[in-house]
């Protein structure tokens, strides 16, 4: 065995681990932990200076300058929301959200899981300043990457119906979070910029209708047109990312039947070309052309939406979300940490996540079953739904993101961070151990 083969053999377990869905959760947790360490170390002042550094560009009389932190929250998170938009469109067209039977219970749970946390937060902050009360959207959110990551830690015994329920719940929650950002956490609007962005977005939908499939065209119009116009309009740029995602074509240039027919013919042609080629190492011109055509029709048989979602998913999980967590999850823990934890904002977020999701998701979902609005999915038990309700209380990325939009006072931002981090940690542990105990004694039917 040569050195290269030994290296590949050594790396193989690592590569398998990286491919696991739970790896992104470990990476996200590590980034959040590192942010906490840096926030309470001598490196804190350097990190804050770096995040405050102004970056931008000028073209003639047009200029855009923002701090690095805002570029992360408005720019990198737009990539995250773009992928969320792609996933939403796919689910609505051909996924879990396309089948009414799969969404009745998650819809009820998701609506309850958004309303009840907001109400609980408002009760804790009632009587406070208007700024402190504006964080009601923070405990509404669910971090799908973390929640699914914890679920995957439980291994193969988790029934597919439970994964479907949590995924559908989190996707509907994402729709709610996007709506909250669009309607309630938007600055003063520049209608000229908004009209320009809307017009370019209309062009993207028109190109989709006309059958244009070049991803580069949509990228130029989406980033250079829609996203930039929304950024300047006052409507949060992440909303532009979701809308642009819905303009990406979901249809294929070559359907499945035509692809299989062409592929069979090309395989036959390749066998003929191979028999005429004496050199076993190099391809003949005919072989190269045939393999090139196989590649072309293979790409044409996958919609731009699915290609983009597949190619950008790793970017979001392994780069965008960890960078966001590193920039936003740090909390300075000093002698006043207990009073900060006991503040109305922190308690409102904590109990909004824990108690709000418990009552909202589990309570309303089970109420729907009792009222015969729908039946409990096969292989699911009340305890499983209870465990998933706590996993839905892992707000983390989405909650931290809304936190950056909700408050102007830095004190409230830090208090809310404390509530998000402690609430998400407690919720994740509760959900994990409840599900682990239930899965041990439950027999899953085929």
User: Helicity level, as a percent range?
Assistant: over 70%
C-alpha-based Rg, rounded: 25 Å
Looking at the overall shape, the CATH architecture of the largest domain is Up-down Bundle
The CATH first-level class of the largest domain comes to: Mainly Alpha
Number of strands: 2
Supply database-style keywords.
446 residues, mainly alpha, two-stranded antiparallel sheet, 2 strands, disordered N terminus
Summarize the structure.
The chain has helices at 3-19, 22-39, 43-52, 68-94, 100-125, 130-133, 144-153, 160-184, 191-209, 215-233, 237-246, 256-275, 285-300, 304-328, 337-341, 344-370, 382-391, 396-406, 410-441; strands spanning 54-59, 62-67. The chain has 446 residues and is mostly helical. The protein folds into two domains: 32-186 and 236-251 and 303-441, Na+/H+ antiporter like fold (Up-down Bundle); 256-300, no CATH class.
Report what the structure shows.
With 446 residues, the protein is mainly alpha-helical. Helix content is 74%, strand content 3%. Strands 1-2 form a two-stranded antiparallel sheet. Strand 1 and strand 2 form a beta hairpin. The N terminus is likely disordered.
Describe how the helices and strands are arranged:
Blueprint: H1 3-19, H2 22-39, H3 43-52, E1 54-59, E2 62-67, H4 68-94, H5 100-125, H6 130-133, H7 144-153, H8 160-184, H9 191-209, H10 215-233, H11 237-246, H12 256-275, H13 285-300, H14 304-328, H15 337-341, H16 344-370, H17 382-391, H18 396-406, H19 410-441
Antiparallel strand pairs: 1-2
Helix pairs in contact: 2-7, 2-14, 4-11, 4-14, 5-8, 5-16, 7-8, 7-19, 9-10, 9-11, 10-11, 12-13, 14-18, 16-17, 16-19, 17-19, 18-19
């Amino acid at each position: 065995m040569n050195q290269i083969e030994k290296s590949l053999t050594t790396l193989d377990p690592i590569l398998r681990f990286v491919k696991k869905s739970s790896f992104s959760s470990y990476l996200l947790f590590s980034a959040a932990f590192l942010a906490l360490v840096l926030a309470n170390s001598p490196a804190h002042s350097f990190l804050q200076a770096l995040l405050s550094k102004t970056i931008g560009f000028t073209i003639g009389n047009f200029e855009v300058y923002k701090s690095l932190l805002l570029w992360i929250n408005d720019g990198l998170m737009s990539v995250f929301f773009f992928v969320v938009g792609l996933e939403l469109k796919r689910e609505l067209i051909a996924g879990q959200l396309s089948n009414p039977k799969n969404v009745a219970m998650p819809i009820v749970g998701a609506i309850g899981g958004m309303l009840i946390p907001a109400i609980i937060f408002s009760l804790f902050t009632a009587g406070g300043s208007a700024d402190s009360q504006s964080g009601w959207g923070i405990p509404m959110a669910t971090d799908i990457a973390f929640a699914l990551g914890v679920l995957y830690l439980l291994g193969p015994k988790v029934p597919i119906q439970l994964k479907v329920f949590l995924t559908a719940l989190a996707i509907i929650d994402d729709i709610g979070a996007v709506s909250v950002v669009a309607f309630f956490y938007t600055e003063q609007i520049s209608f000229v910029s908004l009209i320009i962005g809307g017009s370019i977005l209309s062009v993207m939908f028109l190109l989709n209708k006309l059958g244009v499939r070049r991803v580069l065209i949509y990228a130029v119009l989406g980033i250079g047109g829609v996203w930039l116009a929304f950024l300047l309009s006052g409507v949060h740029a992440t909303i532009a990312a979701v809308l642009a995602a819905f303009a990406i074509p979901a249809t294929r240039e070559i359907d499945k039947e035509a692809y299989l027919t062409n592929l069979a013919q090309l395989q036959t042609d390749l066998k003929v070309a191979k028999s005429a080629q004496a050199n076993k190492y190099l391809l003949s011109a005919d072989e190269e052309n045939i393999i090139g055509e196989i590649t072309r029709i293979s790409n044409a048989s996958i919609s731009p939406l699915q290609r983009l979602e597949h190619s950008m998913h790793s970017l979001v999980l392994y780069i965008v979300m960890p960078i966001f967590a590193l920039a936003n999850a740090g909390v300075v823990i000093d002698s006043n940490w207990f009073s900060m934890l006991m503040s109305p904002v922190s308690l409102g977020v904590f109990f909004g996540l824990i108690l709000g999701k418990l009552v909202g998701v589990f309570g309303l979902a089970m109420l729907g079953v009792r009222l015969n609005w729908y039946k409990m999915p096969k292989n699911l038990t009340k305890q499983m739904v209870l465990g998933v309700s706590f996993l839905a209380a892992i707000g983390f990325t989405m909650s931290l993101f809304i936190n950056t939009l909700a408050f102007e006072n830095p004190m409230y931002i830090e208090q809310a961070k404390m509530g998000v981090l402690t609430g998400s940690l407690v919720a994740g542990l509760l959900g994990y151990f409840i599900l682990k105990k239930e899965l041990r004694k439950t027999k899953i039917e085929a």
